[in-house]
Design brief:
heterodimer; A: about 110 residues; B: about 425 residues; FAD/NAD(P)-binding domain; binds flavin-adenine dinucleotide
Chain lengths: ~110, ~425
């Protein structure tokens, strides 16, 4: 690899990282959808597959349905016993990451 | 796009930080061997979730018992609403479904330089990463007259499920009409902060049905406890708390609740408030990390294991992760729920480290569910983040609201009773 090629690669790496950290500068890093989704698994079942008729499964849920439900719980717009308190612990970006994760599980 | 010098320097530093990781990411020829010690809530969850995160890693779980009894809902066993079988789980699914090698033996030491653990019967075992979840052990001998023998005979703690639970049950059933059941609550930090108060509540409910003039007394070295507001509201509603006929008397530190010595033979507990004679005594002593953590040299001066809060890697020994009750986890209470959540974070971190990736942001949760009666549940739910190597609780979430709707605590009770199995499945199946 020539010097100019190496410099070009290094520059690409720097700007790519800069772009990423520019976004990260405004919005701090969040956990992955899987990591966040694992916090739901202790009630909704591993990978969102519930064993229990009282607990809704999250695996394969429609993405928008999950986003809407979580926002409604968070704003106390939807009646609930525990979900309204839990939903308050996640911001919009986290809810979207969770929705991506569960909606893709078959 | 204009870039300031400071931003450019930051970008360069970030790019530099990425380079070594990218080099490490080359496959190392084999996926590695993770040994997990302790097949309780934390250890079982770690084994299972590590398999989900790292299909090619060899995983060995070391646990002396061939079945695990959850402390979760052991209070229901004590009052006869559940049987020991209902809280007993096996390692079958971890073996067959997740390809985890389960060895029923006790770890008695390790060599962190050679990276081997020493088993009691089974010789030495090498590891690349070690995950330790040994739970707690009791501190005996800080109060005159209380010792291990007393704990195993006349003053059981019931803070590990099994024989201790059955001993408590037998003692409860033997309380004579109008007698007294006394609990000595432990100082913080201890396993399951609401557990003593749930137990006292369920004993009061049992008395209502089987021994209506009997009483519950709690001697407490603290002046407050978790969920004390909804607990005491529920005691008012159900057990006449704050009336002359209350079935529950809670004596906090400020009123002399601290115990000074016990007389096991006479069934008397001497507290600052005076001498209390009781027909059954449930003494829950102060606690520390499980003995194994001391043997492996993982503990701090307070008797708990300091860890990197993002990965649960020990701050004392490299390549060893400590999770569950034994770990120092700041705002997270020592609960099964916390142990399960920490296990998932540690499993992902170990999978990442073995694959040469830098572990990402952790996410953790705890929900402490408690029954005040079979039809009345309360809970506390918290989400946690790590900031500057401290686990902090997000300001939202929180304790069950107190409402006038009888449906709220009833629904909570229904969820809780059903939750136990879903949760155990998330750990063991
Ligand atoms: C009455 C009561 C009620 C509770 N209710 C709840 C509840 O409703 N919800 C909740 O979230 N939590 C509850 N808890 C708390 C919960 O039980 C603990 O927080 C949880 O078990 C901690 O998990 P752990 O993995 O740290 O320890 P444990 O689950 O105790 O597991 C430790 C394991 O390590 C093994 N071990 C120890 N030493 C060695 C060694 N040398 N070699 C190999 N293995 C070893 C032990 O055999 C054990 O299996 C309750 C506790 C009590 C006492």
């Amino acid at each position: 690899m020539s010097l100019s090629q190496r410099l070009a690669r290094l520059f690409a790496l720097i700007t790519a990282t800069f772009a990423a950290s520019a976004i990260a500068g405004k919005e701090p890093a969040i956990a992955t959808g899987k990591m966040l989704g694992d916090t739901c698994a202790s009630c909704h079942g591993t990978r969102g597959k519930s064993f229990d008729e009282y607990m809704p499964s999250l695996a394969g849920i429609d993405r928008q349905q999950l986003v809407r439900a979580m926002r409604d719980y968070r704003a106390d717009r939807r009646a609930s016993v525990v979900m309204n308190r839990i939903a308050k612990g996640y911001d919009d970006r986290e809810i979207e990451a969770i929705a991506d994760y569960f909606s893709r599980i078959r | 796009m204009p870039i300031s010098r400071r931003e450019l320097l930051k970008a360069l530093a970030a790019a530099g930080a990425l380079l070594p990781t990218a080099t490490l990411a080359k496959p190392r020829g084999r996926a590695g061997h993770v040994v997990i010690i302790g097949g309780g809530i934390g250890g079982a969850t770690a084994a299972k979730y590590l398999r989900l995160a790292a299909p090619a890693v060899r995983i060995t779980l070391i646990e002396p018992g061939n079945r695990f009894l959850t402390c979760l809902r052991s209070n229901d066993v004590m009052v006869g609403h559940m049987k020991l079988d209902d809280i007993t789980f096996t390692y079958d699914a971890l073996r067959s479904r997740y390809g985890i090698e389960v060895i029923h033996d006790r770890c008695i030491g390790f060599d962190p330089k050679r990276k081997t653990v020493q088993l009691d019967r089974g010789g030495k075992l090498g590891y690349d990463k070690l995950i330790v979840s040994p739970g707690i052990d009791m501190i005996h001998g800080d109060v005159e007259g209380y010792n291990r023998e007393v704990a195993e005979s006349v003053m059981p703690h019931g803070w590990k499920a099994g024989a201790q639970t059955l001993l408590l049950k037998k003692q409860l059933e033997a309380v004579p009409a109008g007698g007294t059941w006394l609990m000595v609550a432990p100082p913080l930090p201890y396993r399951c902060p609401p557990g003593p108060y749930e137990r006292a509540s369920l004993v009061a409910e049992w008395f209502q049905r089987h021994n209506p003039t009997a009483k519950v007394v709690i001697l407490d070295p603290k002046d407050a406890f978790t969920k004390d507001v909804p607990f005491r509201k529920a005691w008012e509603r159900l057990y006449g708390y704050n009336t002359p006929n209350s079935m529950i008397e809670w004596i906090p530190a400020a009123q002399g609740g601290k115990v000074l010595r016990v007389d096991a033979a006479a069934g008397i507990v001497h507290a600052q408030a005076g001498a209390f004679r009781a027909d059954a005594i449930n003494y829950i002593p102060p606690q520390r990390a499980g003995t194994l953590a001391f043997r492996l040299g993982l503990t701090n001066r307070d008797g708990w294991c300091p860890v990197n809060r993002r990965t649960f890697e020990s701050e004392v020994v490299r390549d060893v992760h400590v999770i569950g009750d034994a770990s120092v986890a700041d705002a997270m209470p020592k609960s099964g729920y916390s142990a399960n959540s920490q296990a998932k974070v540690a499993a992902q971190a170990v999978a990442d480290m073995l694959a040469g990736r830098t572990p990402g942001e952790p996410a953790m949760i705890n929900v402490c569910y408690s029954l005040v009666s079979q039809d009345y549940g309360i809970s506390i739910a918290d989400i946690f983040k790590v900031v500057d190597n401290r686990i902090i609780k997000l300001p939202a979430s929180g304790v069950s609201p107190i409402t006038d709707s009888p449906a709220q605590p009833l629904l909570e009770a229904i969820y809780q009773r059903n939750w136990h199995r879903t949760f155990a499945n998330d750990c063991f199946a």
